[in-house]
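# step 3/5: fold
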Amino acid sequence: MPVSQVPALSKRILEGSIYSYLHKKLHIKFGGVFRRIKADLPDKYDRQYLGANESTPILEIEQIVWTNSGVNLEYSRSRNLYSNWSYIMVETSH
């Protein structure tokens, strides 16, 4: 997250909900998100930090979140054991 977009960011905010802070205190509205979800085999870090063996499936999620004014606000990439993560998508039409 660009520090310029999140002034007065503190440890207390990070330990709570940064999204609540962005929405309620800074009145930042999200314009969209790009999310890539893929299955992968574990790398050496997955084996070391997640306890995966060489054939344990890993779920990788990469995302970019931007504001309604088009400013990139977040880039993240997370890797999780298949047994610790699920993803649910709901689509609606207005």
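# step 4/5: annotate
The first helix runs from residue 11 to 15.
# step 5/5: archive (pending)
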